[in-house]
Amino acid sequence: MIYQDKNQLQNGCAKIIELDGNDVRILDENRLQSELIDDLIYTAVFSPDQATQEASRWLIRRAGAALGIISASIQSVYEAMGRGELKGFTVPAINIRGITYDTAQAVFRAIIKGQAGPVIFEIARSEIGYTAQKPLEYTCAVTAAAIKTGYHGPIFLQGDHFQINARKFAADAAKETQAVKNLIWEAIEAGFYNIDIDTSTLVDLAKATTKEQQKTNYSLAAELTTMIRDLEPEGITVSVGGEIGEVGGKNSTVEELQAFMEGYLEELKKGGESLKGISKISVQTGTTHGGVPLADGSVAKVKIDFAVLEKLSELARSQYGLAGAVQHGASTLPNEAFDNFPAMGTAEIHLATGFQNIIYDSPNFPGDLREKLYEYIKKEMKDEWKEKDTEEQFIYKTRKKGFGPFKLDMWNLPAETRNKLGAELEKQFSFLFEKLKVNSTQDVNKKYVRPIDVQIELPAALKG
After folding, report:
1. pLDDT above 90 as % of the chain
2. Is residue 290 over pLDDT 50?
3. Is 225:219 a contact under the CB 8 Å cutoff?
4. Contact at 8 Å (CB) between 341 and 310?
5. I want to staple 80 with a disulfide (CB 3.0 to 4.6 A). Which of 31, 86, 163, 172 is the partner?
6. Half-sphere exposure of 456 (CA within 13 A, CB side)
7. What one-character-per-residue DSSP string does 207-256 give?
8. What confidence score (pLDDT) does residue 132 get?
9. Residue 163 phi/psi, 5° resolution?
10. Per-residue pLDDT tens for 401-425?
């Protein structure tokens, strides 16, 4: 049910949760989990009444906090990795583009089943646009999924690729930088306490020295880090990531990592105070976001340079105290590749398109909706169809942009369909958690993560 106004909302909450000053008290956790949370998250995403929508979002976040489901920074875990106290596993960072509430439930079921510890839920700047999911909505969907599945503990929300667009930066640097700053502010307000800055798009390989090539990258990364430190709530150190090589470009080198870090740390010191820097560094090792589609729409096998990944991870830890290197564009790799990431000391791995493919290619996904979506992108996004691409290649590369326009259709799929898709996704999440050695690491969260409950203002619809 989608509540249309605050009276419907208040009636729906009766005897399940109630206001307690500027917070909530849970009266019936079983009914919250089995029925009310579904109505709250659908209202939070789709209610036509903005005040009711805002109230639902507040109730979800505060109900989650009452159950110990609190947004947290992974900073302390990554600092322990940098000191060599933690090793042997790679943290999965999962981008959820579609059917977010159900997909996040599949993640939490896999976490509970495998007793997994650190798992990140993330969304990139570009994804926020084409999936029509602003940070606060994403926070609420993940929190609601945690409540639904009975998960209790910290949740790690991350802004992935908060990226400077090189073309827009060249046209108006101040405007493009401000757009990313605004997004960072919005994300932190929504409980994203992990932010991956991506200014690697501004690396200029035409410059004479490696440090000159990286200068705009590290200078702007330092500027954005400083802003994050100003915005982070008291008691929370937001985990910040940097990037030295754009995914899909040439493989990263030791010299690039050193040049970036030296320049970045110098820039951070210019303010005269000691600021906490990045906790990890994203590098390029041969992958491409989404994989490389062949003429028939299948994905080409990619060869990752694991030697580069291992060398840069070790250098990041030993010289700079970082958790290690971060691998992007990995979800479409062959299954046999995933054992290598924890073995090579990879700190974090970003996974997205593979889960999208499970949804779209599943025999359980309605064929008529798939066809309707494909016809939409062929018509509305034909300008993105490159002359050399077959129809299959175009659809593979573009169908991610169907999640926004068809969001309501996907969320409203029959429960049986969503359950079957969720089971397929859960199977893949469980497989990845096992391969990345993140199963049986719940003690890591208990030992190193101390979530701080940041109070949020009571919305107008609930006052009085």
Report:
1. 88
2. no
3. no
4. no
5. 86
6. 23
7. SSSHHHHHHHHHHHHHHHHHHHHHHSPTT---EEEEESS-TTSSPP-HHH
8. 97
9. -105, 140
10. 999 999 999 999 999 999 999 999 9
Domain boundaries, the chain: 6-67, 70-359+416-448
Q: Is 134 exposed, middle or buried (0-12, 13-18, 19+ CB in 10 A)?
A: middle
List residues bridging with 120 in a β-sheet.
93, 156
What's the rounded Cα separation, in Å, for the pair 34 and 405?
29
Say how far apart CA 242 and CA 225 lie, in whole Å: 9
pLDDT recorded at residue 212 = 95
Residue pair 103/355 in contact (Cβ under 8 Å)? The answer is yes
Mean predicted confidence (pLDDT) in 5-29: 95
- Calculate Rg over the CA atoms of the chain: 22
Specify the amino acid at residue 354: G
Question: What DSSP letter does each residue of 137-163 carry, written as one string?
Answer: HHHHHHHHHHHHHT--SEEEEEEEEEE
pLDDT at 308: 87
Position of tokens 């073995």?
A: 343
Task: Give the pLDDT confidence of 57-71 residue by residue, as tens digits.
Answer: 999 999 999 999 999
What single letter denotes the amino acid at residue 236?
I
Residue 327: C-alpha distances to residues 157, 281, 342, 445 (Å): 18, 9, 11, 22
Helix, strand, coil content of the chain in percent (nearest 5):
55, 10, 35
- CA–centroid distance for 50 within its chain: 25
pLDDT top residue among 38 and 301: 38
For domain 70-359+416-448, the CATH class is: alpha beta
Q: How many Cα atoms are found within 13 Å in the side-chain-facing hemisphere of 59?
A: 31
From residue 296, give the alpha-carbon distance in Å to each of 224, 387, 392.
42, 15, 6
Helix axes 173-189, 135-149, angle to 10 degrees: 30
- State how far the Cα of 263 lies from the Cα of 204, in Å rounded to an integer: 15
Q: What average pLDDT does the segment 269-290 reach?
A: 80
Q: Which residues pair with 351 in a beta bridge?
A: 94
| Cα distance between residue 312 and residue 192, in whole Å | 27
CA quadruple 334, 340, 344, 345: dihedral sign: positive
